[in-house]
Amino acid sequence: MDRRSFLFAAAAGGAAIASGAIYRRWHEITPVVHAPGRALGHYLRDRGSVPPPAQVIETDIAIVGAGMAGLTAAWQLRRDGHADFLVIDGPEPFGNAAGGRDGELAFPTGAHYLPVPSRECAHVRAILADLDILQRDADADKPTYDERYLLHAPEERLLVNGHWHEGIVPRAGVPAAELAEHARFFAEVDRLRGLHGADGRRVFALPSSASSLDPAWLALDCLTLRDWFEQHGYRSPTLYWYLDYCCRDDYGATAATVSAWAGLHYFCARGGEAANAASGAWLTWPGGLQPLASALAERSSARRLSGAAVSIREVDGKVEILCCALEGGRPRSYLVRARKAICAMPLFVASRVVENIAAYGFDPRQHLPATAPWLVANFMLRGFPDERPEAPLCWDNVVHRTEGGPNLGYVVSTHQDIRVTPPERTVFTTYAALSHLEPLAARRWLQAAAPDELLALAAADLHAAYGSAIDMRVERVDITLRAHAMAIPRPGFRSNAGLAALRAHDGPVLFAHADLSGFSVFEEASWWGVQAARRAQDKTGA
To answer: Which of 112, 216, 337, 538 is 20 to 30 Å from 443 at the Cα level?
Structure first.
């Protein structure tokens, strides 16, 4: 075993993953590996030189980045009747909301669902209503949504000791004392959902900027979720596994790493309802969130430019954005001049691109959040594997491992296709957050790992569920590496002065990204996109 595979095997702690199966090729199928933005990023990092701009483009507002924040900013500008703007796509159009296709099959390569928004998430409801996903009563407690996009049953299941069980909270065979702790925790979540701080705000709200700033509750941000768990007398291993899984799934990091405030926010801030769905319903599409991103792009009718920003700087009260695109491996650059620029890119990129970002109150050495690496793999299958009799195939399928680890289960892209008979082909999408390693070590492993090593990690949960029998159904495997998939809300993120400065900044350069909140979800990204678009239209003093 070489150094790279030894590093992974030791960190994963799974003898099965560390076995010779790492190097087995599935019927001569070699995965197609995508690393969005890597080629351009490495060109700019390693070669450093960008040719002089071949073109100068003038616009009123430039949106730099076509992830959810940038797309929402473009949508808001068009909604307000503002037409003089453009979008610079960045290294990957749609960012973490991107997806892919294989013939008639669509699949996610990033985010794959959106919880039904509560009333306080009015900006999300406005977006969904404008796209006709929310079809009636947008201001009601329980609006009506398009049935095609509401997740239908069976929703989720958990594989424990070789048997499937409904839901993903471990319950089968769990001692009564542990189940009592489960009940106590969920009762506490219900209590916290309704609490307000001394400032009158809800303790946990979406968007998170609406949450209480009461110091008594902000003290939760000084702890990890594991600290909070232990301080409140919880001892249940199965409850801790569930909390840890949720942190890894939503934040890409363990409960021993994530802020207790963020960990509790995951459970307490949501609660949206629908007139035509059960409480806690989700919206999803076969392609994950790409159809939502595509709909926003279409509705905004934005002029879009390929390439990524190399530098953003203020010049004589305006903004100059030098951009570079690789075309056939050769660089092409152009310059955009704008009255306002909305910097809708991850902060680890913005910290390198925005000239003297410290002048905006953000010092990357102190304020830059750590980012979690992810691996998303799509397995194109001929038909469906045989299932155990105790529980049917669900949309979300999770494998319980007491030691945790990187794997987060798999979703079925064709689940929303309501048919009398199953389709002839389907896609199982597996997710892994490399939370068992420090982020830098995980990124180095992703960059150095051979395709068969990546495949072994991606397939671990499928083999746990079906054994080698699933191999015969695999036609193709697409693997997407997201080295900086999301910000990790570690303790102290709520008091991060640099993030607060960028959130409050108003000037020629504006900032809009989920990173401003400290964690990556659509509700946060879209909030900052809307806010930046509204500020960008203010011409006071321009």
So the answer is: 112
